[in-house]
Amino acid sequence: MNEKFIQKRLYSFWNKKGHIITIPNYRFSYGYADLISITRKLYVHEFEIKCTVPDFKRDFEKLKHRFLGDKHRSSKYYNLEGKEKEFPNYFWYATPEGLVNDAIIPEYAGFLEIPDGAYFGINQSVKIIKKAPKLHKKSMCLDELKRLAIGFTARFWNNKNNG
To answer: Strand locations in the chain, DSSP E?
Structure first.
């Protein structure tokens, strides 16, 4: 099972639950996300996809986890350049089924397992092991949504012209 396989499963699962935008491999204002998905209320779900235990453990070296784990956080933080950045409303880990124990998932994160092989409907494509807590209530602003649309459109057409 690889990242692309899991991205497709997550897209299918959250799309059926009413998410309106799902983008793989997105460069966020504060870093990189394996997948983001946006609800009708413009709440952002970020997904970190981990296919190996070493990759999962390495993820905690990223600066963003210091901010995600801060109990006094708001919807914003300041990056190393002093620029104000937004956090997702929900943060999830997604792994192949049985890769890691849910006890090691931080309290600020949700945890999804992806069963291997064929599935027969939405409930078997993704297993919610631990629901992600809402990190803040602020929805994505229109400017950020525009930047997302412009960036994704450019990436789509650049890839289309290269392939």
So the answer is: 21-28, 31-38, 44-49, 76-78, 84-86, 90-96, 110-114, 127-130
DSSP secondary structure code for residue 20 in this structure: -
Question: For residue 143, which of 37, 31, 40, 29 has the smallest C-alpha distance?
Answer: 29
Q: What are phi and psi of 85, to 5 degrees?
A: -130, 155
The single residue listed with the structure tokens 């960036």 is 151
What is the tens place of the pLDDT at every residue in 102-119? 888 998 999 999 998 755
Q: Is the pTM of this model over 0.90?
A: no
Which neighbouring-strand residues pair with 90? 45
Cβ(5)–Cβ(50) under 8 Å?
no
